[in-house]
Amino acid sequence: MADDFAVLKSMTARAPKMTIPSPSMLHPRGDRAAISRRAYPDQAEFWADVAAAHRAAIGHLAGAGCRYLQLDDITFAYLRDPKIQQNCRQNGDDPARLPRIYAETINAALAGRQDDMVVTIHTCRGNFKSAWVAEGSYDPVVEAMFATDADAFFMESDSARAGGF
Length: 165
Prior knowledge:
By secondary structure, the protein is α/β, with parallel strands linked by helices. It contains 6 helices and 4 strands, in the order αβαβαααβαβ.
């Protein structure tokens, strides 16, 4: 992605933004059931590897001149929905613990980033062709989400399904 960013940067005098999936995006589709228990008997090792891979990618982007990075992350928004929480439980995860795990992984991925790199997190409930997947208040996730080392957040808050703070 660093090569793609370098091309983008060469095409503008403005600060270009690079968007990548948040580290936590490797988890929500299958939860613990999708992570090899042989390779990762302890999920903490999985999260450490995810953070290390993202940290390396962020370093490559910084080396290409990226100073505005957006992490796309549906996990925080999805974890507010009771249906999603039940699915997590069925797949072997505790939805009450996941927001903190996701935040810690994001912070580990951002560790050592360049001081002049702005990082934002975009979260939503899915908006493909006006369809959406989850709904509910930010209450169950807001403390963990705001504990990330992001500089700003792009969050839905303008509808009944977006819930409150």
